[in-house]
Amino acid sequence: IINTSAFQGCTNLKNIYSDNEILVFGDYSFQGCTSLTTLDANTYTIGEHAFEGCTSLQTVKLANLPQMDIREKAFAGCTALKTVLLGLEEDQIKEDAFAGCTALEEVAVPYNRKDNIYAIISDSKQINKLYILTPAFYPYPSKSAAKAFNKAQCEVYIPDALIDDFKMDPNWMAFKAIKPLSESGYYDAKCELK
To answer: Which residues neighbour 89 within 8 Å (Cβ) at sequence distance 6 or greater?
Structure first.
């Protein structure tokens, strides 16, 4: 566990990488670490405001652990954040977890967040790649944030075994391209992070 405010304001810290599980990144644990560029870890909880204001953070890669929870404003104000890679299922991602992350370009869509992920990432208008993590085909969400999402500028990567099902659906066909997940460079054909 990384305790509350443990590395808050460590402005020279550049990377966080762990092969082992870090059960919890506590509230405010890395808030204001303005040189941090990469977070690559196995964790269950990203606490409130944990990485808020990490203005150089570009990549967040959180491995497939069950019941992961990304809490309020965990990555708020991470204005350079471009890539968010998550696991197949996330227990909870608060709607303001990525508030102010205006530079997002590529985002994973966990299966149980498929209906609300578009509201969670709505501050960015630059998203050009979605990684659809799912064990089965599902219709494109009908919620207002999903309807407003700019599909025409975005490629979607689908689990290899399901790509034909998604290609036959008119709402998914509106995306710029539909590609196999195994060609994403981040995930294998079965939604596991490489």
So the answer is: 66, 68, 110, 111, 112, 133
